[in-house]
Design brief:
Beta-Lactamase, 7-stranded mixed sheet, 18% helix, elongated
């Protein structure tokens, strides 16, 4: 409710300085506990006006690209999108604040890097710590990010990993607008598979 009340206040309508930035300091319209998705927190939380111009920005880390690049992907309503911006994968989430027909309406945009923390959080249901998930650039067969950077490092080529892992890859097309051929890949340790097979055969 803090955010809704702020967007409906005279301060939002009158204060046109663009943009206000908050670095490691929560703005008044944000709850004391920052927005998070599991263990994942957005690198940026942005309030956009109706013209999709950034008005207020809460930073956790710098972006390698102008915010306008992310705002330009806005689908016209609430939603989420997987995309690449400057060759790095991101999850973008949008939610309208107040009614779009109101003159003081705003759009909340979350910018979430699809990095090691995000992929590791997605692996919580998998008990096998020998299995790694990663995002792969399919045309170049190059790792973009993985759930374990000590085993599967960004920018490694798939060919460098085949001797150690059984690899499956699948294109990501739902809710996605990639500039690259991004695929979701799973890396299963060959040693673990061989050990499991030996146990089965010995019983």
């Amino acid at each position: 409710w803090r955010l809704v009340e702020y967007v409906k206040s005279p301060a939002w309508a009158q204060d046109r300085e663009k943009p206000k930035t908050y670095l490691n300091r929560l703005p008044d319209w944000m709850a004391p506990a920052p927005v998070s998705l599991g263990a994942v927190t957005p690198s940026q939380i942005v309030l956009l006006d109706q013209d999709l111009e950034p008005r207020e920005i809460f930073h956790r880390q710098d972006l390698p690209f102008p915010l306008e690049r992310a705002a330009s992907r806005y689908p016209g309503g609430d939603g989420a999108l997987l995309t690449t911006l400057w060759k790095a994968p991101f999850l973008l989430v949008w939610a309208g604040v107040a009614q779009p027909v109101e003159s003081k309406a705003a759009i909340l945009m979350l910018i979430i890097p699809l990095d090691t923390i995000f992929l590791l959080d997605s692996q919580q249901a998998v008990a096998d710590d020998e299995t790694v998930v990663a995002l792969l650039e399919g045309d170049q067969q190059r790792i973009l990010a993985s759930s374990d950077q000590t085993k599967v490092t960004a920018n490694m080529l798939l060919e460098q990993l085949r001797s150690r892992y059984l690899i499956t890859s699948q294109s990501i097309t739902d809710f996605a607008d990639w500039d690259q051929n991004v695929q979701f890949s799973t890396f299963v340790s060959r040693k673990r598979v061989e050990a499991t097979a030996e146990r089965i055969l010995s019983t």
